Amino acid sequence: MLVLITYDVNTQDAMGRKRLRQIAKQCVNYGQRVQASVFECLLDAAQCRMLQAKLVSLMDVEKDSLRFYYLGNRYEKKVEHFGCQPAYGPDDALIL
């Protein structure tokens, strides 16, 4: 299923900046960054629960915000892209 993950981390202190880097690093391991604090991730249910647990353990629930939007397996019909950056398919091959 395609999951859209967004986060807002309070970066007013060094610990907040560290949390921001740690959360971003975990998200990069599972998906594609589409905006500064937004990731599209193709996950199965187990991966989703595992990533969610990791991110929640990293965040400060008093200062930060984390959202998961579940777009499902038929996400192609639910996502439209406009603008300068070319769209990509989350399940397309990546060449490194």
Mind explaining what this structure looks like?
The chain contains two helices and four strands. Strand 2 and strand 3 form a beta hairpin. Helix 1 runs antiparallel to helix 2. It is α+β, with helices and mostly antiparallel strands and 96 residues long. The protein has a four-stranded antiparallel sheet, with helices on one face. The radius of gyration is 14 Å and the shape is globular.
Rg for CA atoms? 14 Å
Secondary structure tally, helices = 2
- Number of β-strand runs: 4
Overall body shape = globular
Give the uncertain stretches in residue-range form: none
> How many angstroms separate the termini?
24 Å
Secondary-structure-derived class: alpha+beta
> Mean of residue pLDDT?
87
Helix content: 25-40%
| Major sheet | 4 strands, antiparallel
Content of β-strand: 25-35%
Q: Numbering strands along the chain, what is their spatial order in the largest sheet?
A: 2-3-1-4
SSE order? EHEEHE
Notable traits:
single chain, about 100 residues, alpha+beta, four-stranded antiparallel β-sheet, 4 strands
